[in-house]
Amino acid sequence: MGRRYLFLHLDQRELALVQQFMNRMANRSKWRERLRGSAILESHHKKRVKEIARDLGRTEKWVYQTLQHYRQRGIEGITPQKYPTKLTHEQITELLTVSHRTVGAPLKDYHRRWSLQKMTQWVKDKWGITVSREGLRRMVKRHYGI
Question: Where are the domains of the chain?
Fold first, then answer.
C-alpha cells in the first residue's frame, strides 16, 4: 500500500522516444507494447497507478512492473524480448542427421524417428545444452520449416 504514487518524470528526449515508440506500434498489431507505452505516458502525466490499471484494464502489479522495467532499461524495457537460438544451424543439422530425420522429410514419417524427448536428451548429453521439447521443435521449424 506504500506504492500508490509512482510517477515517471520524463525529460523531453525520453518523452519524444516514448511517443515515437507509440507511433511505431500504432501501425502494427502490437497491442501489448502499446499498453506498456500508454502506462509510461500516463505515469508521466501524474496519473496514479490504480487509475492507470483501471484505464488500461490491467492489474496494479502489471503497471508497477511495466514502470520498473522502463526505469531499469528505458524503452528497451518495454519492447518484446527476442531470445537467441540455443543451438546453431550446424548443431540442428547434426541432430537431425543422427536422429535419422532427414531435412525436408514429411511430418507423417515423424513417428519412425526419435521423439522430441529423446532428441532433447541427446542434445544435453552431446553439448551440455538444456532445451525444452517445445523449444527444440521451434528451433527445427525455424531453421528448416518442418
Answer: 12-78, 89-144
